[in-house]
Each structure stands twice: as C-alpha cells, then as structure tokens.
Design brief:
six-stranded mixed β-sheet, 12 strands, about 250 residues, 2 domains, four-stranded mixed β-sheet, alpha+beta, Ribosomal Protein L22, Chain A
C-alpha cells in the first residue's frame, strides 16, 4: 500500500482514510501479507465479504501508517490491549515518545490516526448507516446536544447527529475507558461554521478535536489529548486510493 509522501514539516497528528469500494483482489492479497495470524483469523470469521474487505483494508492501512511514523516494517507491528479493549503498540516497539494510534471503519470507509506522546481516538460513520437517530440521541446524548438536535431542520439533522456521534465515539476511544464513560456525561457544541466546544467537567486532561466532512454522507472525527504544541497543531490528512476528499472541517476552540 502506497501512502502519500510526507510534508516538509513533521506532523503532530497524521490521519489516513480510504474508501474501500475500489479495493481489488490485488489490494486484498497485499493486505493479507501484512496482517498477523490473529487479524487474519478475525477477518475470516466475518460472514459478509464487504466486512472482510473493510477489516483487511483498515488493518493494512494502520500498519502502513505506523511504519510511516518510523520504526518497524508494516507486517512486524505487535499490539496489546488495555482492560477495556483499546489496542496499543507493544512497549518494545513504541519508541520515545511512544507512538499511539486509533482505528475505525464503517461500510466502505476506513481510517486511522497516528501520532506520538498523546492519546488518540478516531471514528468514521456514514449518515446512511444510522438508524433510529432521534431515539439514540434522546436516550444517550447530553441535554444541550439533544436540545440542539431538536432545533435542527430535517435536512440538517443527519449531519448534525453523525457529527456529534463521531466526536463522542472518538473521545471515548481516545480515553480508552469504553462505555464505562457515559455518553451523556460530556457534550459537544458546534460554534459558527467551523468551531467546536467541548464540555466535560470531569475531564482530567485537555483534549482537542477535529470533525471533517468526507463527502458521500460520511464524517470523520479525531480526538487528541494534551496541550497543543507551542507552534500550534500541524495535522496531516492523507487520502489513500480513489474517492472524494475532505470537503470541510471543524476544530475545537
């Protein structure tokens, strides 16, 4: 798998995404050589061929992205998971500062985030994959988020809901506590055309967020822990393969 070439300035965060409808048999054969036996076993247990394709494409993308950050070849990365299931690179391979990542995939779209010395979370979702959105929001979202969704016009509701959903999932995945962190205990607020505000009174560290519209009714959200670099965030967003690119984005204030 060929990744886009690096910019002249190193990135603080690198995000990679790929539309998988154009993944062909040669791509899948190449991915198979990168996956470890446990990943191949998990892929093979998936019943739907589309799910097997997306799983293989996602994990091959992650391994290649990790290697682009420096260290082991793609097929050599080894992983461990915390008690809530969040995966990480083994300490022996992580380096200093340690490389960290997160991975997400939905039907036809896979993405990962890679960086060093921080915790990361990422989530991707498509509007067409969301069912019973109002019921989910009323049951699980924070009060201000529910109020904002109630005020949405019908044609704006899916994008707003998926934006909130992916941001909340990215944060939960970044913190690494699974659903032991209730979705209603924190909230996001859209500010103007491009801003975000994050509200979590019990957060023990600062977090920063990006929300991107990828076209094809899809949104991607990224969470990163810690204070921003002195020179400000430098984020690389890399598209692999064919398909629409990023249309616009929001970032937290």
């Amino acid at each position: 798998m060929q990744l886009p070439g690096p910019d002249a300035r190193p990135h603080d965060v690198d995000v990679y995404f790929r539309w998988t409808e154009t993944v062909d048999d040669d791509d899948l054969a190449a991915a198979d050589h990168l996956l470890d036996p446990r990943e191949r076993s998990r892929r093979d247990r998936l019943v739907n061929p589309r799910d097997r394709r997306d799983y293989a494409a996602a994990h091959a993308l992650l391994r290649t992205a990790l290697s682009a950050s420096g260290g082991s070849p793609p097929a050599d990365w080894q992983f461990v998971a915390n008690e809530y299931g969040k995966p990480a690179v083994t300490a022996a391979q992580a380096g200093v500062p340690p490389v960290a990542f997160n991975l997400s995939h939905t039907h036809g779209l896979v993405a990962c985030v890679v960086g060093r010395g921080r915790m990361f979370g990422i989530d991707v979702e498509r509007y067409t994959r969301v069912e019973r959105a109002p019921m989910i929001a009323e049951r699980f979202f924070a009060g201000p988020e529910i109020d904002a969704l109630r005020e949405c016009p019908d044609d704006g509701y899916p994008a707003h809901f998926v934006g909130l959903w992916t941001l909340k999932e990215a944060y939960i995945k970044g913190v690494g506590l699974g659903l032991s962190l209730p979705l209603h205990s924190f909230a996001f607020e859209f500010v103007g055309d491009a801003g975000l505000r994050f509200h979590h009174p019990e957060a023990t560290a600062p977090w920063h967020f990006w929300l991107a519209d990828l076209g094809r009714d899809a949104r991607l959200a990224v969470a990163a822990s810690g204070q921003p670099p002195a020179a400000g965030w430098h984020i690389g967003v890399h598209q692999v393969g064919e398909g629409p690119g990023m249309r616009h984005s929001r970032s937290s204030t």
